[in-house]
Specification:
The complex is a heterodimer of chains A (158) and B (262). Chain A is mostly helical and 158 residues long. Chain A has helices spanning 5-19, 34-44, 48-64, 72-87, 96-118, 124-152. In chain A, helix 2 packs parallel to helix 4 (72-87). The longest helix of chain A has 29 residues, at 124-152. Chain A is globular. Chain B is of the alpha+beta class and 262 residues long. Chain B is globular. The chains are: A mainly alpha (158), B alpha+beta (262).
């Protein structure tokens, strides 16, 4: 249970991303949950290698449900997760703005990698910025939800 | 982080970059394994709203939609054949390729990424689906199969910039290449037709159909209508046309995959 919680949530959030319709009225966006989860994993993991492992799983899950090159998101999530995990002790993960910044960082990096692979397009920088902002909003909410989950499942450690 | 752990993470990421550029059987197996894990979860999304009413309606709806798709596709094919016959009536022995063997599939998921446009179908190699087979529905062309697994496949949509279709303006027979728009912000998914003769007389609202060149997409499948046209800014040699697809890519439910010609 304790070891399976985050991997199961990764698969569920990846499936949710694929199941939700695009928000064309907002300019063709899709809500992304995985960058927030990768940021959560990187800030709360007991060991950096676990944070990177979670990012790798999130990247693979995302790519298995996308037409992009398989494994691309491993880079997009893995590198920023490694950086965050490296900074782990110097960051106060309980501060909402730290959580938001971490989510924005992961989302922006992953979007930048994907954009470079898909071919930079007109307005791509704006798209990356909006995705980072959406993730910045989503990450503190995810932290709150995960805290609740940990409260309800007392033996589920990180 | 300890220096040793950084080194391991760094080496793993470098190894991954090398691995990424070389599609291998291992990565294909890993991908299909993950798809098998996530597909039931994606399908779960279909069940969440009003489980009972959806299940009750699904059986009869599916049969009617499939029949309707076949009939409307036949109508498009007949219209195109009629136009073709008028042009080519003097030629004898022209071999027509109109009949297709199709497999109906349900859309079970969309692309999880913001950077590609694709859908996931519940049919795969077990149903005769192979890579690069064309996909359409009652109204027109949707895209092509990009990766087929045993019980599912991923279809690259016509509105993705990586999906390129050789096309014709239906009345003027002017050729060009249709691909998804590269604009990052889109209120409605649309495509562009490039490499169109700069002297061509293009009418707004004119139908664009697949030309059959290239061997992937059969001739005569409706793609969209001309929205606007302008001279290519970079070269000035061609016209670029904005195409409004005839297919509503936001409401795809059932599609047909052409598995072979009769």
């Amino acid at each position: 249970m304790r070891r399976l919680l985050l991997p199961v949530i990764v698969l569920m959030l990846a499936a949710a991303q694929a199941a939700l319709p695009m928000l064309w009225w907002l300019g063709g966006w899709r809500l992304e949950f995985l960058p927030a989860l990768v940021a959560y994993g990187a800030l709360t993991a007991s060991r950096p290698s676990r944070a990177v492992l979670l990012a790798v799983l999130a990247g693979l899950a995302l790519d298995s449900l996308s037409a992009g090159p398989f494994g691309l998101s491993v880079l997009g999530f893995g590198l920023p997760a490694a950086v965050l995990a490296g900074l782990g002790e110097s960051l106060d993960r309980d501060l909402p703005w730290v959580q938001a910044g971490a989510g924005a960082w992961v989302a922006a990096f992953a979007a930048g990698v994907a954009c470079a692979a898909a071919g930079p397009t007109f307005g791509a920088l704006g798209k990356i910025s909006v995705l980072a902002m959406l993730s910045a909003v989503m990450t503190p909410l995810l932290f709150f939800t995960m805290e609740l989950l940990h409260y309800w499942l007392p033996d589920s450690g990180r | 982080m300890k220096q040793k752990e950084w080194l391991i993470v760094g080496l793993l990421l470098v190894a991954w970059i090398v691995f990424l550029g070389q599609p291998t059987a291992v990565s294909a197996k890993l991908r299909h394994f993950l798809i098998r894990l996530t597909t039931p979860l994606v399908k779960l999304g279909d069940w969440i709203p009003t489980v009972k009413s959806r299940r009750q309606l699904q059986t009869s709806n599916d049969a009617l939609r499939t029949e309707n798709a076949h009939l409307r596709q036949m109508l498009h094919a007949v219209t195109e054949t009629e136009a073709e016959n008028l042009r080519l009536e003097t030629l004898l022995g022209l071999k027509h390729h109109r009949g297709f063997v199709t497999v109906a599939g349900h859309v079970i998921g969309r692309d999880a990424s913001n950077w590609w446009k694709s859908i996931q179908l519940d049919v795969g190699t077990a149903d005769g689906i192979r890579d690069n087979q064309p996909v359409f529905n009652a109204t027109g062309l949707i895209g092509k199969v990009e990766a087929a697994g045993r019980g599912e496949c991923r279809v690259l949509l016509l509105v993705d910039p990586n999906c390129k279709v050789s096309a014709l303006l239906q009345s003027s027979r002017t050729p060009g290449v249709v691909a998804g728009s590269e604009a990052a912000f889109q209120r409605r998914p649309h495509c562009e037709m490039r490499y169109v003769d700069r002297s061509a007389n293009i009418k707004i609202g004119e139908m664009v159909i697949s030309s059959g060149l290239g061997g992937v997409f059969p001739k005569g499948i409706p793609i969209g209508v001309v929205g606007s046209a302008h001279l290519n800014q970079e070269t000035g040699l061609y016209q670029d046309i904005e195409i409004q697809p005839v297919v509503d890519f936001n409401r795809l439910e059932e599609v047909l995959v052409i598995v072979r010609q009769e």
